[in-house]
Amino acid sequence: MASTKITRTLGTPTDNKKWTWSTWIKRCNPGTDEYVFELNEDSSHYNSINFNSDRIEFNDNNGGYLGRKITTRKFRDCGAWYHIVCVYDSDNVTADDRMMIYVNGVRETAFDTDTDPTSGAVSFNASGNTCSIGVHNTSSNYMNSDVSHMQFVDGAALAPTAFGSVDATSGIWKIKTTCYATPGNNGFCMKFEDRTNLDLDSSSNAHTFTTTGTLTATYDNPSNNFPTGNPLYKPIGGAFSNGNNTNVGAGNWFTMASTMGVNAGKWYAEFKPSTGSVAMVGVCGDYRINEQAAADAGFGSNTGNPSIGFFYGGQVYVNTSGPGSAFSRTYTTVVIISLALDMDNRNVYVAKDGEWATGSGAWGSTTFDAGVGAQTLDVGNYASADNWLMGCGGNSTTLQANWGNGYFGTTAVSSTNADGAGIGSFEFPVPTGFYALCTKNIKAYGG
Fold first, then answer.
1. Per-residue confidence band for 293, with pLDDT thresholds at 50, 70 and 90
2. Which fold has domain 5-212?
3. Residue closest to 370 by CA, chosen among 382, 357, 379
C-alpha cells in the first residue's frame, strides 16, 4: 500500500470516549515507521496506531501526548500475520486500562513509553475528522504492509476474542472472519477480500471510503499464509516493494528468497526478472543463507551452502561460486521462469514461459515430464532435515515473484491457473501433483 491511502470523513460518533480497533497485518519493511490507522483532526491532533522502529505505537495526541503507548517488544517477522487490537476507553476507572494493546490475543504490558490519558479525555472519533488507513496526517509515513480484516467499533471497549480465538488443536491464535455485529455509527469492517472492491465496508453501516493510489489484491491472508521475499535474509540489497514480492537492485548481487522453507512435498512458483537482467533462479538451503558473502546471489553461487541456481546465460550453478556447468538454456529477455521443487524425490525442475527443460539441452514442450531435465538436491551440505527456499538473485535488475498471489509487481497474470487444490493464481499450468507453497497446502501435502 505504499503511497496509497484509504480515507473517510467521520460522522457523529456513538461515543468519542470509547472505541476498539482490530486488524491483521503482515509486515513488509521492518525498520521503517509506518502508520496503519488514524483518526485525524490536523497534524497536531490525532489518534494513531503505527510502527515506530518496529514497536507498536498507540497515540492520543492533542497538541501534546495525552496518552501514548510504545511497546518494548519489536515486531519484525515478515513471514507471519500479526493480529493487533487497540482499545481506547478514557472513562475507565483504571488509568492503565484507558489505552490497551493486544497482539495475537495477549495484552502487551511492557512499554518503552507508557502514558495514560486523563479520565474522560475525548478522542478524535469526531464529526468532520478524517479516518485514514495506511497514512499519517493524510500525506506521510505510508504503510507498506499487507492487511486483512480491519475493523473499527465505535462505542465499545472489546476484548480481542471479539475478533479472534485460540485454535483448540494447535493452540494458535486464529481469525474470526465475521464482522462485529454492532459497529456503532463510525464503525466499519474491511475484509479486503473482494478483489474488485478492496475498500468495501462489509459492516452493517456499509460506509463509503475513498482510495487514493492503487490497492493490490493478494490471496495471502491470516487463514492461509503464503511466502514472500524476506528482507531479513542477507545478503539482501535492493529495495523491496509490492508486499515483498518485488526487489529492485543496483550494482552487486542481491537476493529474494522465500519466507517459507520446505523439506517435503512438491511445490511450484514463478519468477520474472527484468529485461537484459543478470539473474539466477533456483533453490537454496535456509540454514546457511545468512552466512553468505555480500556478492552472492544465494542460489547456486555460494560455496558451502547447498543450492542450485539456473543462470540467465545458460549455466546451472550447483553449490559453487565458480563457473557453472553448461545448461544450454538461456532466458535473456523478459520471461517467466517456473520452478517445480520436488522434495520427496529431491529434484528441482525449471521452465521458461511454460516450456520445461529437457535432458537434450533445450526448452521442451509444455508437458511436464518428471525425471527429465531434473537437477538433484543431494549436493553440498544437504541433510534430510534441512529446509529449502525458492527464489531468485540478480545484479542491477528487477526481480518479481509469484508464489500464487497472481501478480508480478502490480500487474495481474494474464492467465489464472490454480494448483490441484484450487489454490493460487499462476501464469502457467501447475504440474500435476505440485502445489502453491502456503500453509493450507503444507498441512495437506507435507512440507
1. very low
2. Jelly Rolls (2.60.120)
3. 357
pLDDT in tens, 87-97: 999 999 999 99
Spatial distance between the Cα atoms of 110 and 160, rounded to a whole number of angstroms: 18
The DSSP code for 229 is B
Q: 96 in helix, strand or coil?
A: helix
| Interstrand relation of 266-273 and 435-436 (parallel, antiparallel or unpaired) | parallel
Is the pLDDT score of 207 beyond 60?
Answer: yes
| Burial label, 13 (beta-carbon count in 10 A; 0-12, 13-18, 19+) | buried
SS3 166: strand
Q: What is the CATH number of domain 239-445?
A: 2.60.120.920
Whole-angstrom CA distances from 401 to 150, 244, 262, 272 are 26, 9, 17, 6
Q: Please tell me the distance from the alpha carbon of residue 116 to that of residue 97, in angstroms, as a whole number.
A: 8
Query: What are the residue ranges spanned by the domains of the chain?
Result: 5-212, 239-445
Q: Is residue 60 within 8 Å of 117, Cβ to Cβ? A: yes
Please give the model's pTM, rounded to 2 decimal places: 0.91
Indicate the range of 195-209, 323-337, 354-368 predicted with least confidence. 354-368
> Is-same-fold flag (5-212; 239-445)?
yes
- In order of 115, 221, 257, 436, 439, the CA distances from 260 in angstroms are 38, 15, 9, 12, 9
Report the SS3 class of residue 291: helix
367 has a pLDDT exceeding 70: no
Count CA atoms within 13 Å of residue 295 on its CB side: 4
**Which of 364, 331, 334, 351 is closest to 426 using CA atoms?**
351
Q: Is the pLDDT of residue 295 over 50?
A: no
Residues 103, 82: contact at Cβ < 8 Å?
A: yes
At 124, the pLDDT band (50, 70, 90 cuts) reads very high
Q: Do 261 and 389 contact (CB within 8 A), yes or no?
A: yes
CA distance 143 to 295: 30
pLDDT of residue 331: 83
Q: Is 354 left (phi over 0), alpha (psi -120 to 50) or beta?
A: left
Rg of the chain over all Cα atoms, to the nearest angstrom: 24
Kindly report the number of other CB atoms within 10 A of residue 442's CB atom. 18
